[in-house]
């Protein structure tokens, strides 16, 4: 059974903007931290990425805001798999930020890939990484990414 990964944080002084709520780039930082905590919790540490000479590269982040997040407020960030290519090279994660009552504060969608740090190009990761990613709960609108998906015709 796939499960949702979650991490609990508290908004810090350094996360605030002039208006007194969490700045947009802080949302991206917490989303990234949650992703890396997920891999760590599943036995894949930063040192493993360094040894394999691969790393995640985000092409697009999309943030949707629902309510304010203020200083020292506790919040939870969940992680779900929104999309994955058959070879595991490209993926999409969705983070949901929620208050202690479970009300959505914001969501972050990240379209990304695994990047070979020596060849400087998109690369399929070792089989363990897609297996770890597939242990995540999938979003209701999960989709296969790319032309190699079973339900898409091959492009000549």
Give descriptors for this structure:
156 residues; alpha+beta; Thiol Ester Dehydrase, Chain A; 7-stranded mixed sheet; 3 helices; 20% helix; 38% strand; globular
What's this entry about, in short?
The protein has 156 residues and is α+β, with helices and mostly antiparallel strands. The protein contains three helices and seven strands; from the N terminus they run βααβββββαβ. Strands 1, 2, 3, 4, 5, 6 and 7 form a seven-stranded mixed sheet that branches.
Low-confidence stretches: none
Q: What is the rounded Rg? A: 16 Å
Could you describe the largest sheet, including whether it forms a barrel?
A: 7 strands, mixed
Corresponding CATH superfamily = Hotdog Thioesterase
**CATH second-level architecture:** Roll
Summed over residues and divided by their number, the pLDDT gives a mean of 94
- Number of structural domains: 1
Number of strands: 7
For the record, give the distance between the C-alpha atoms at the N and C termini, rounded to a whole number. Answer: 37 Å
Q: How much helicity do the residues have?
A: 10-25%
3D shape: globular
- CATH structural class: Alpha Beta
What is the overall number of helices? 3
Write the CATH fold name: Thiol Ester Dehydrase, Chain A
The proportion of residues in beta strands is: 35-45%
Would you tell me the structural class of the helices and strands?
alpha+beta
